Amino acid sequence: xxxxxxxxxxxxxxxxxxxxxxxxxxxxxxxxxxxxxxxxxxxxxxxxxxxxxxxxxxxxxxxxxxxxxxxxxxxxxxxxxxxxxxxxxxxxxxxxxxxxxxxxxxxxxxxxxxxxxxxxxxxxxxxxxxxxxxxxxxxxxxxxxxxxxxxxxxxxxxxxxxxxxxxxxxxxxxxxxxxxxxxxxxxxxxxxxxxxxxxxxxxxxxxxxxxxxxxxxxxxxxxxxxxxxxxxxxxxxxxxxxxxxxxxxxxxxxxxxxxxxxxxxxxxxxxxxxxxxxxxxxxxxxxxxxxxxxxxxxxxxxxxxxxxxxxxxxxxxxxxxxxxxxxxxxxxxxxxxxxxxxxxxxxxxxxxxxxxxxxxxxxxxxxxxxxxxxxxxxxxxxxxxxxxxxxxxxxxxxxxxxxxxxxxxxxxxxxxxxxxxxxxxxxxxxxxxxxxxxxxxxxxxxxxxxxxxxxxxxxxxxxxxxxxxxxxxxxxxxxxxxxxxxxx
Length: 488
Ligand code: BG6
Fold this sequence. Notes:
CATH superfamily of the largest domain: Dihydrodipicolinate Reductase, domain 2
Number of domains: 2
Radius of gyration: 24 Å
Order of helices and strands: EHEHHEHEHEHEHEHHHHEEEEEEEHHHEH
Structural class: alpha/beta
Number of strands: 15
Strand order of the largest sheet: 14-13-12-11-7-10-9-8-15
Distance between the termini: 50 Å
Bound molecules: 6-O-phosphono-beta-D-glucopyranose
CATH class of the largest domain: Alpha Beta
């Protein structure tokens, strides 16, 4: 909680995209809402030579371009003096000593600090080491917290070794690993839907749920990030973190309380119960694909086999979920930007109505995470003026209708505020990240195995992905749901 000390937020990699598009607009908005500590300062650190004024002008541009709220010059004029810049390298002891001196001078001896790693991941351990060597992680005069952006490692071994390296200097309670999906309102609402209502939880298990689908579709392609993305691919970029996090929230047991330890313990239990895939399972239960034209994108290797789309079927081996498949899919250059979770219930056990001889469309609960945030509940109704004809109808909740069009803040706002207040519930713990890599690693290694037994599929930009993904569900007698929740 707020100990009344001045708070410094140091952003490493401050001249980059993330600071300009997300971090500073979010901090500015928190300030407009009166949620920042009484005394705070945002210090950018990076290689680029910026004066304070140039740094401020660069960020003002970012706010004008990327913030979701109206830019008001007087508000910016009040906020801009909290921004300062320190030029420095990520590997130089003298530069870190300068930073330390700069921060201590403003703090006058006592102050809290957040160090935000918005740099390429290769330098995370260096920065932590140098902060430690220059005494900047010492907590005698105020707390010290370190925020680490994704990607956290590229596989289980590298994530573990990164954890080991940073644990030499930091306690786990000081580390805030970001997964920005957890900062999204609609993602937090998964737990509220489940645990602040009594009508869903009794049905939330293998007795009533047929399967779960998690879709995170993007309309954009690889854009200017090919240098990073081509070596990474969709499983590392989206599944290890965002999709598996969504899955844990859908599948976890109710925690005893809403505190970070209780919540994260339950998430780790889910991840540990996901059945690890063997190579033969990978062929049956995954699809990897690339959008046509990807190899012609700037910065992509001409022979690249990097998947830009994947579909994965996972099973959770526990009492609640045994036999209920979780189908996860995500890709770039798809038809629409949308993230949704579909819970499909089982068909009624007895077919009573003469016009529904074959089967009755199962009930569905669809959690729309973005862009039209809401929750839809699909159930069967009798078509008026017929003897017993049935049709599916929807009950819809849209955030925009209930809370207003601008009610949903940027995910980073919530995450930055939680870092300031010291609430780590929405950040991933060391064991959680490692366990998630343990699920992804066997899939990637089967995909990369020399016999290439599973071919790379291709899909048209603007489609819903490759036919192979439909076939994967088809083998189970199922279909993916579409944007409006209907089955294609
Ligand atoms: C990031 C990925 O973590 O999430 C990007 O690195 C992806 O490739 C992005 O585009 C999607 O986030 P959102 O919030 O736009 O769904």
